[in-house]
Amino acid sequence: MTKIALQQDRPLDAIVLGRAGVDLYARESNTDMADISGFNKFVGGSAANIAVAISKLGAKAGFIGCVADDAFGGYVRSYMSGQGINLDGMMTDASGSRTSVAFTEMKPSDCTVLIYRNKASDLTIKPEQVDPEYIASAKVLVVTGTALSESPSREATLIAMEHARRSNTAVVLDVDYRPYSWRTDVDASIYYGIAAGLSDIVIGNREEFDMMETVLAPGNKDDDATAERFLRANTQVVVIKAGELGSKVYCRDGHKFQQGIFRVDVQKPFGSGDSFAGGLIWTLVNGGELEEGVKYGSAAAAINVSGKSCTEAMPTQEQLFDFIETREQSL
Ligand SMILES: Nc1ncnc2c1ncn2[C@@H]1O[C@H](COP(=O)(O)OP(=O)(O)OP(=O)(O)O)[C@@H](O)[C@H]1O
Ligand SMILES: O=C(O)C[C@@H](O)[C@H](O)C(=O)CO
């Protein structure tokens, strides 16, 4: 069993850095985008989803990001603070940028997600807006990697990671790679490489590690070799997710293990990675073992993909434990 040592005397459990936006989910399931009659509105965006996941499970979450100075920005703020998330690090941009918006189909697979991110507000966050004391108030800083895709958000993200290292706040990098946000895979792999070296835990899927190996090991598909490559500098744990095949976890001391999935009736595939990260981080900030965290993350992900949205389908602690108990009893 593996324990991740975290500073305990902190008012916040985890601060998540990245985008918070609006998700518009198709009203009808199994319907193509062109035929959908309307959409239901929720808060989304990878970082917001992770913060909500952590908060709903009962830990104290904070947020670093930026929304537009408009009605969608206000909606995102009010939903997140209603979820008990501390927004001291959430900026508002009035320069004409726009809060990120995603439209999605509701299909178990081959599901179209259209994201509108022209002049996205989250990418306007500046390094001087990142408060080192805020970061020092948390046990963990969770970075979602799309924040690295453009300046000035890229510099804000890297300095946030640097502040975290200086204040003994553990750093988790959720790769969260969105190809359309980057000029080339080479650029992405260089910045992700720097960010990975500043992180205690790196979480990504195979395609994301492929991108991160664009320069160092092009064409590699071997998870063991990938883990060995990334278990360097500050990185103690590498998690390689594989959708319905579960996940593999590698530790710096050579320990490795796998986690399968909890089978469910899938409504939509997205949200799995964010709920997985939320369940894992919630476990770690409560002093749980890594193995337990990966199991809770997998269960949270299964609950989420069987739900009708990302944020609202994040489980509470009670729902998570009931779900696992029911599944284990039926084995
Ligand atoms: N269909 C599924 N049923 C049950 N659990 C799932 C399913 N898909 C994913 N999971 C769980 O969620 C975890 C993360 O999923 P995945 O590997 O798809 O992450 P991801 O690629 O980051 O996803 P996304 O970017 O769509 O949120 C998996 O390791 C698994 O535990
Ligand atoms: O991450 C995004 O910006 C898109 C979403 O809003 C959606 O919540 C999702 O795809 C989660 O991974």
From TrEMBL:
Its EC number is 2.7.1.92. Keywords: ATP-binding, Kinase, Nucleotide-binding, Transferase. Pathway: Polyol metabolism; myo-inositol degradation into acetyl-CoA; acetyl-CoA from myo-inositol: step 5/7. It comes from the Bacteria. Residues 15-316 form the Carbohydrate kinase PfkB domain. Belongs to the carbohydrate kinase PfkB family. Catalyzes the phosphorylation of 5-dehydro-2-deoxy-D-gluconate (2-deoxy-5-keto-D-gluconate or DKG) to 6-phospho-5-dehydro-2-deoxy-D-gluconate (DKGP). This is 5-dehydro-2-deoxygluconokinase.
